[in-house]
Structure formats: structure tokens, C-alpha cells
Amino acid sequence: MSSQGVLSHYKPYLPVTDKTPHLSLGEGDTPLVRANALSQETGCDIFFKLEGCNPTGSFKDRGMVVAVAKAQEQGAQTIVCASTGNTSASAAAYAARAGLKCAVLIPSGQIARGKLAQAFAYGANILAIDGNFDRALELTRELAEQFHFAVVNSINPHRLEGQKTAAFEIVDALGRAPDVLALPVGNAGNITAYWKGFKEYATSPRPSPSKGEGAKVSPLDKGGLRGVTLPRMWGFQAEGAAPLVSGKPIAEPHTIATAIKIGNPASWSGAIRARDESGGEISAVSDDEIRAAHSYLASREGIFVEPASAASIAGILKKLRNGNLERGQTIVCVLTGNGLKDVDFVLASGFEIKTLRAEAGALADALEIQV
Ligand code: AN7
Is the per-residue pLDDT at 227 higher than 90? Predict the structure, then answer.
């Protein structure tokens, strides 16, 4: 795929018309990297989909480019969203690119600073409220209705259309769907979008990317959904913010993974459908399990993610510990956001640097090298 982005590359699958602006920051086409340590430990074939490699550092860019282009096409002047951070960074970037105004509603004091810095740098109007994400989303809907702003949260169906393209890329990279797709779940747009993407890609004829424009039918397409493998969808929520696990909204969600600190997911029914249709599950992991998985990813695999993105790894490690992880499965874990978004999370965990004398001997001592 060229760096022209999602709208251009996946045009036949997206609501793109001749009037849709050619908006792109080079989103999509993210790496699928094999998990060496985790594969060895689990006896599974595990891959990471590195969504932190998107232009603003999270998966949100795939959907945002579609939502903002369509808003522009429909003549909107201002876009608005509620956010735990990544949506606001992405909205702000694409609004800047498109020349639109952008307002972002955030729960005050609960956004990772990297994300805030992004929204600020891209020139968004940042509205911090004394309420949580769920309240911010309610207010977003109110504002949009009253002032005719375009909402670019995942309640905007164009967002999910764009985000489903990650499923296409995974199928293309593996040559088939994985047995399991594992991802963190907050507002539940992404799990809904992936499931839509896997189903759609399995049932629609598509041009073969390697063979140019001639419309080739992929092996997956034969016979529609019958005989076609689809992944089981495994969603992971943080224990203090797991309404889809408990079955009821949570008034005051809490977790260190601020990105998924959401008590009443907008795409609730989409997540449940993805879980049930795929024979999957949505379960919870603790903050300590998220911390441990975050550290495992960085120190064992060389991959730095933000805390929420470690939730699926936490879930897999937990299944392994409990003897609930069948060997031999192909599992793709979606690593949704870049670790640089939330460096405070790392620096707050007992990180300390001592300044040494500027002499080789002092350095050797520090490295515990015997001279
Ligand atoms: C890194 O930015 O909801 O279940 O407002 O930033 O589709 O909500 C972010 C969510 C996972 C959960 N990982 O995805 C927002 C926001 C990261 C995220 C999720 C988010 P959804």
C-alpha cells in the first residue's frame, strides 16, 4: 500500500464518492509483527498489529480520516468529540489538515499528557469538564444537536467504516483470518469495527493488492461466509471499567488505563454481537495485570505501548496462567496506541537516574563490571 492512506486504498469498501475530499495523513498499512517471546511462552502463533504506528500514534486515525472527510464533504465547519485522549488527538490532527475547527471534550485531569499535548499542538479547542468520559459524550451529542457540529466519535458510523480496514490488512498479511483477534475494549467501537471488517472481507470479492486493479476473487470469498474462517473476538476491559463483563453500566469507572476508563460504551450492542457471533468473549484484567503486560511487551518484545494497549496481552497471559489458553492458535493482538503518549505512566513507576562522575571507572562501577 502506498502512503496515500485509507480512503484511497480501500475506496471500494468505504463511503467514498467523487465529492469526498482526498484527505490523508498516511494512516493505515501498519506492521504486523510476530511476538517472539509470547509465542514461545504460549505455544501459540502470536502477532502484534502495531496501530501505534499511525500518524497520531493510535488506531483512531483510520476512522477519523473517513469521518472528517465526510464532514468536510457535507459542508461542516466544526467537528466535535468526547475523548479519553486518542480520539481528540486524531480529530485535532485531521481537522487541522482539513481546515476545520475542532472542539474536544475531555474529563479534566484524566488524559495522558502526550495526548493533551497533541490536541493542543494541532490547535483544537480543548474543553475539560468536571465529569467523566461518559458525561463528555452526552454533552457532545447535545452540542452537536444544538449547533450542528459534526460528531466524530464512533457513534458516527464513518468512524467504524474506516477502522474496519485494519481487519482487511490482517487477513492480507496472514493470507487468512487469525483464529483469535484480541483487543482492549473501551467505548467498544473498535471491536465492532473489526468484526464488521472480518465479515465483510470474507464475503466480498476484492481486487488482489499484489496483482493490481484486475478484480480477483480471494480464496476466502468462495461460498460467502460458509466455510470461511472468521476469528473469535476476545475483548479485554479493565476490572474497574468493565461494564460489558458485568452486564451493566458503571457510574464511576476507574483504571490506570485512562484510554479505556469508560462506564457506558456507546457501541455496547456491537460489542456483544461481535462476541456472540464469533464465539468469543469479553473479560476483565486488573490494573496490576495491565502493568505487568505493559512491562513484558517493552522489556521482552521491544514494543512500547500505552497502558490500555497492554490489556489484551494481560488477558492472554492470564489465560495462560489459568490453563485456559489452547496451544497452536494463531492470535493477533491489536496494540492500539503508542507508548510515547503516556510516558508519565512509566516514569511514575519507580524510575530513577543517578548522575555519575564523568569517568570511565565510575561507569564501569555502575555497570558492575570487574576491572
Ligand atoms: C489506546 O480516545 O475512547 O473500544 O476517546 O485510546 O473503540 O473505544 C479511546 C479508546 C483502546 C478502546 N486503546 O477502543 C478515546 C477513546 C486505546 C484507546 C481503546 C481506546 P474502543
Answer: no
Is there an atom of ligand 1 within 6 Å of 112 CB?
no
For residue 120, the SS3 value is helix
pLDDT band for position 204 (cuts 50, 70, 90): confident
Contact 341, 58 (CB under 8 A): yes
Q: Which residue from 60, 233, 303 has its CB within 8 A of the most atoms of ligand 1, so it is best to mutate?
A: 60
Q: In this predicted model, what pLDDT tens digit does every residue of 75-110 receive, in sequence order?
A: 999 999 999 999 999 999 999 999 999 999 999 999
Binding site membership of 259 for ligand 1 (Cβ less than 6 Å): yes
Distant-in-sequence, close-in-space partners of 86: CB < 8 Å, separation ≥ 6: 56, 57, 58, 59, 60, 115, 259, 336, 337, 341
Listed residue (108, 47, 125, 117) closest to 86, CA to CA: 117
pLDDT at 229: 85
First vs last C-alpha separation in the chain = 53
Query: Is 306's C-beta closer than 6 angstroms to any atom of ligand 1?
Result: yes
- Average of per-residue pLDDT across 234-251: 98
As a whole number, mean pLDDT of residues 244-260 equals 97
Give the closest residue (by CA) to ligand 1 atom 16. 84
Which residue intervals of 100-210 are DSSP H helices? 113-121, 133-147, 157-163, 165-174, 189-203
CA 315 – ligand 1 centroid, Å = 17
How far is ligand 1, taken at its centre, from the CA of residue 213, in Å?
34
Please give the distance, rounded to the nearest whole angstrom, from the Cα atom of residue 82 to the centre of ligand 1: 11
The torsion angle over the Cα atoms of residues 238, 106, 263 and 261, rounded to 10 degrees, is 0
Query: What's the CA-to-centroid distance between 225 and ligand 1, angstroms?
Result: 29
CB of 189 sitting under 6 A from ligand 1: yes
Q: Is 184 helix (H, G, I), strand (E, B) or coil?
A: strand
The reply to whether ligand 1 has any atom less than 6 angstroms from the CB of 84 is yes
E strand or H helix at 281: strand 281-285
Cα(202)–Cα(204) distance, integer angstroms = 6
Model confidence, pTM: 0.93
